[in-house]
Specification:
This protein is α+β, with helices and mostly antiparallel strands. The chain is built from 2 helices and 4 strands.
Length: 71
């Protein structure tokens, strides 16, 4: 009997850090998306994400600058 490993998702910020402190992966895309919304909310007051490499990233474009991978 073989075990099928569930897919795990990882999301890195535009600067290459995980989007949630202490969490390296998520068990579903939905959980990753929920975490992304919380991550994005931390920058809502200033109106943008400040990236060391990409400058100011508008929050509506932030998803496109993050790196998503899965196993």
């Amino acid at each position: 009997m073989s075990k099928i490993k569930e897919r795990q998702y990882t999301m890195l910020s535009p600067d290459g850090f995980t989007i949630e402190f202490g969490v390296n992966h998520y068990s579903s895309r939905e959980k990753m998306e929920e975490s992304f919304e919380k991550f994005k909310e931390r920058y809502r007051q200033q109106g943008y994400y400040s990236s060391n490499e990409n400058g100011r990233i508008p929050l509506e474009d932030l998803w496109d600058y993050c790196l998503i991978s899965y196993l």
